[in-house]
Amino acid sequence: MGVEIRVEGLTKSFGRQTIWQDVSLTLPAGEISVLLGPSGTGKSVFLKSLVGLLKPDRGHIWVGDRDLPRLPEAQLYDTRKLFGVLFQDGALFGSMNLYDNIAFPLREHTKKSEGEVKRIVMEKMEMVGLLGAEKKLPGEISGGMKKRAGLARALVLDPEILLVDEPDSGLDPVRTAYLNQLIVDLNSQINATFLIVTHDINTARTVPDNIGLLFRRELVMFGPREMLLSSEEPVVRQFLNARKVGPIGMSEEKDVSELEAEAKMGHDPGRLPPIPPQLMPSDGRVRPTQHAPGGWCAAHGVVPPPGSFIDDLGRNWVEEWPRYVAAMSPVGGGPAPGGFGQAGGGRPGAGAAP
Fold first, then answer.
1. 313/348 Cα distance (integer angstroms)
2. Which of 91, 180, 207, 228 could make an SS bond with 211 (beta carbons 3.0 to 4.6 A apart)?
3. Residue whose C-alpha is closest to residue 180's, from 349, 4, 2
């Protein structure tokens, strides 16, 4: 099971430039969280702070019962072994083949025999669909394969926390969809705590359990997926609708005169789109930490945008969910009649990725 991360009052500056301040959030153990925000808001800096590569100016990062910024170097080094990191460009060694790239953390941080190393590396390569590509160099493979190789390397030490920095960067929409499915499948298999930094709206709307948004050097919002996807916060609406109208400008934020001009013209960042069903694991099983569709909205008296939780076949998953869970549970004996559990068929979110 993954480890809970609690961030309290975190602030980071470079010289006189404040990147973000007083950031507080909790990444629930075993859940998938996504961090959104315009370019230049410090999302990658936040990831580097979480793993201890950058030290914040003030605040706490509790990984279990350890406060990362205050750990001695030896304990920090040991705590980092809880993390796996998929860097934006894969960060593979160009002179090493994929096998040696993936084996590198095991050879660097453990005393395992080459036989054990081979078993683990091949297991992780199979998990990400790279069996048969062991001898290829990074320069001989596609961007999507590089991402999967970087993901396999991040998994070899069996991390309890996985940080993923812009997995969609440089990928076409189809490869991004495949990678999203892989992330959901991995979370289902290893139950690690995931934090994904992304600009991809489809990823943010279909993959995570929780979403956060950084803007104007602050964390605007962080919480369950449905909370953000049903929010009337102007910056959230603008970002999710990918519109020019709203607080976000070309240089991150607009000045007062621009906002006043937009207000006079009566422009609106647009209504929020429907909340789609969440992407499910390929085998159709419900992840242990997954929440029922519409559960947060119902518990907080929020009416979601019209058309929410309805899949490509027109089924409302707020209504279908209890029957689906019963059909897919071990007690239920596996898939029930009516298409549940069939590949690409009855799963909520099945149409979100090929």
1. 10
2. 228
3. 349
- The DSSP 8-state label assigned to residue 119 in this structure reads H
Q: Classify domain 5-215 at the CATH topology level.
A: Rossmann fold (3.40.50)
Residue 112: is it exposed, middle or buried by C-beta count within 10 angstroms (0-12/13-18/19+)? middle
Phi-psi label, residue 91: left if phi above 0, alpha if psi -120 to 50, beta otherwise: left
Q: What is the rounded CA–CA span in Å between residue 237 and residue 250?
A: 17
Q: Interior CA angle at 208 toward 245 and 341, to 5°?
A: 125
Q: Convert the pLDDT of each residue in 39-65 to its tens digit.
A: 788 888 999 999 999 999 999 999 989
CA-to-CA distance for 8 and 59, rounded, in angstroms?
A: 6
Q: Among 66, 17, 59, which Cα is nearest to 41's?
A: 17
Identify the CA nearest to 181 among candidates 160, 202, 154, 162: 202
Q: How many alpha carbons fall within 13 Å on the CB side of residue 215?
A: 23
Tell me, yes or no, if the pTM score tops 0.90.
Answer: no
pLDDT digits (tens, 9 = 90+) for 88-98: 777 888 899 99
Provide the residue ranges of all domains of the chain, joining segments of one domain with +: 5-215, 241-271, 273-354
Phi first, then psi: give them for residue 49, nearest 5 degrees. Answer: -70, -40
Query: What is the Cα–Cα distance from 269 to 280, expressed in whole angstroms?
Result: 30
